[in-house]
Automatic annotation (TrEMBL):
One of its GO terms (cellular component) is peroxisomal membrane. InterPro entries: Pex16 (IPR013919). GO terms for biological process: peroxisome organization. Its main location: membrane. Signal peptide: none annotated. The gene is Pex16. Keywords: Peroxisome, Peroxisome biogenesis. PANTHER family: PEROXISOMAL MEMBRANE PROTEIN PEX16. It comes from Nothoprocta pentlandii. This is Peroxisomal membrane protein PEX16.
């Protein structure tokens, strides 16, 4: 990735990390009008950054969060003794004569900070496979897939616009948002040869469709009563859950 693209991803990640805090803090300090203003500004900034990544830098299907968090335990480099002896597995491991089980020899045991519980070969293979998955280029998007991703990016802005036009109690914003989400996913489902990161992102978006059951006005009309009824049943008849469910 180029340096400007990395900066865009960084700013996008920062916005996603602070948007909830900014919304709650603004509402507490200046009221509802300022809260909706900061929501619109943040969503507008996120949409602009994502469209730049999609159309200018050809970033493909964008994940959330934009920058995958670093797993420091998995990214930990090999011990110097492992690096020196990586060419000869016999120096690092011992193969049981009867069980054929591979264990690390005591001479090549690393320090406690960099110790792991697999054989050196297994760790090298997992690290190389993980690095290969992270460095895979994004899948090129055609016109249909680019439109689908653009719809997904613009959905929060269209939802906010519909809320301003029809109000928070109307079904129209809920239906519009759901239609845009389903349309985007259906258009992207035809895309083949996705890498692992992109497949994971599409699965995440599909699972997030369940959140529509918890969004107003559907939640107020249908879900709330059933969820509360279920919680009361758990509180009354399942020992130990009463404190939590109440």
């Amino acid at each position: 990735q180029s340096l400007p693209q990395q900066k865009l991803l960084t700013w996008l990640s920062v916005l996603e990390c602070v948007e909830v805090f900014a919304e709650m803090g603004t509402a507490r300090a200046w009221g509802e009008t300022a809260r909706w203003t900061i929501i619109v500004l943040i969503q507008l900034a996120k949409a602009i950054l994502r469209l730049l990544l999609l159309l200018w830098y050809k970033a493909g299907i964008q994940t959330s969060p934009p920058i995958v968090p670093l797993n420091r335990e998995q990214q930990q480099p090999l011990h110097p003794q492992d690096v020196e002896g990586s060419s000869s597995g016999k120096d690092q491991t011992y193969v049981g004569k009867r069980s054929s089980r591979v264990v690390r020899s005591l001479q090549s045991t690393p320090s406690l900070q960099s110790r792991h519980w697999g054989s050196p070969q297994q760790r090298e293979e997992s690290q190389s496979r993980r690095a290969e998955e992270m460095n895979q280029p994004p899948t090129p998007l055609g016109l249909q897939e680019t439109i689908a991703e653009s719809v997904y990016i613009a959905r929060p802005l269209l939802h906010l616009l519909s809320l301003g036009v029809w109000g928070q109690r109307s079904w129209k914003p809920w239906l519009l948002s759901a239609i845009l989400d389903v349309s985007s996913l259906s258009l992207l489902s035809d895309l083949k040869d996705l890498n692992r990161r992109e497949r994971t992102e599409l699965r995440r978006r599909t699972i997030l469709l369940l959140y529509y059951l918890l969004r107003s006005p559907f939640y107020d009309r249908y879900s709330e009563g059933r969820i509360l009824f279920l919680l009361r049943l758990l509180a009354d008849y399942v020992p130990g859950l009463g404190f939590v469910t109440r």
